[in-house]
Structures are given as structure tokens and as C-alpha cells.
Amino acid sequence: MIRIFAGDDRVKAGQEITKLLGEDHETIEGADLTASDLPNIFKGVSLFTDQRHILIRDSLANKQVSDRITDYLDTPHNIILQELKLDKRSALYKALKANKKVEIKEFNLPPNPNTKLVFDIYRTAKRDGKRAITMLEQIKPNQDPIMFFGLLASQAIKDYSQNQGTKEKRTLKELSKLDLQMKSTSIDPWLLIEVCLLRLS
User: Fold this and answer.
1) Range list of H helices, the chain
2) For each of the chain's 201 residues, which pLDDT tens digit applies?
């Protein structure tokens, strides 16, 4: 049987995977697969058991796999494809969803209620860094600094894609410096973020 687990809650998905496949299942990275690997994975036998338990991570983004996956839906093995995202508009998704031999389950993290506030802080920082730091104090206790940085970076990239001006370029440079500092120093990441917010204005 083939199961497809999609979504960004990898912890819950991982618990379900262990429950269904056991602790000692095979794990394969889907990005590395070629079409010639598929017969061995989906049809190949093991010396020790008739049914293999296999986890394949992020395989449907690999065109060599996604183009051929429907050829292997009658696999005798217990296989889970773990995907971060599924395009529900695609012909492949519709074909998999309609097939009784495939089970699709989603594991999504709840939306972060602070996301809008993070974007407000980013926009404020471009005008008034001190005010942005005051706003930051509201969400720091319930926010991970790495996640906060990721949201800042995603908004800056979006801004740059819409308008490749001097201020947008400078913002990206400041955030790339912040990224390097957060990865290479032991200074409190929130302090580094606050300094960066001041520089953005």
C-alpha cells in the first residue's frame, strides 16, 4: 500500500510513520532517485521479508518519480511518501486521490497568530526602528527568533521581487548579515535582531 503524508508538521507525521512502518524502516531521499531506481523500490524483494517498510521523503517534486509513480500503485510493500506540499490542482494529485490503493493524509502546523504582527514589525522597522523593537517585545516570549528571522527574510524577498530599489537591496544585505551573525556567534539572537531592525530604518 502507498500512503502520502503531506504538510509541515513533521513531528506528528513522524510519529504516525513510526507507528505504521516501525522503528527500523528503510528511508530514501526522493530528490536523489531516478526512474531506474523505482522498480527495485516498489517491486524489489528483501532476503529477510516479503513486505518491505519504506519511507520516501520529498519524492513527488522529482519529475522522474512523479511521472512514473502511478505505475507502481500495486506495490506489495508498505510505503509512505512524505511530502512538504501537494499541488491539489495537478493531474497527478487527482489521479492519486481517486485511487483506492492510495491514502492521502495531511499533517499541518496551526497557523502562527504572530505572523501578521511580524510583517507589521518589518514594515515599521523600515520607518522607525525603535518603534519596531517596542512592538517586538510583545511577541518575543512566544516566538522563536529563527522563525521570526525567516518571516522577515521572506517578506524582504517578496518586496525585492516587486521593486528592486536601493532600499530593498539594502534590506536584503542587512538581513544576510543578520543571518550570518545568528549562525556564527553566541550572542543572543534577539539582540542581533533588534540591532538589525534599527539598521533597517
Assistant:
1) 10-21, 38-43, 63-66, 91-98, 115-125, 129-139, 145-162, 166-184, 189-200
2) 899 999 888 889 999 999 999 998 999 999 889 999 999 999 998 777 789 999 999 999 899 999 999 999 999 999 999 998 899 999 999 999 999 989 999 998 777 677 788 889 999 999 999 999 999 998 888 888 988 898 888 888 888 888 888 888 899 999 999 999 988 888 999 999 999 999 998
Residue type, 25: H
Query: CA 105, CA 37: separation in Å to the nearest integer?
Result: 25
The phi and psi torsions of 118 (rounded to 5 degrees) equal -60, -45
Does the predicted model carry a pTM greater than 0.85? no
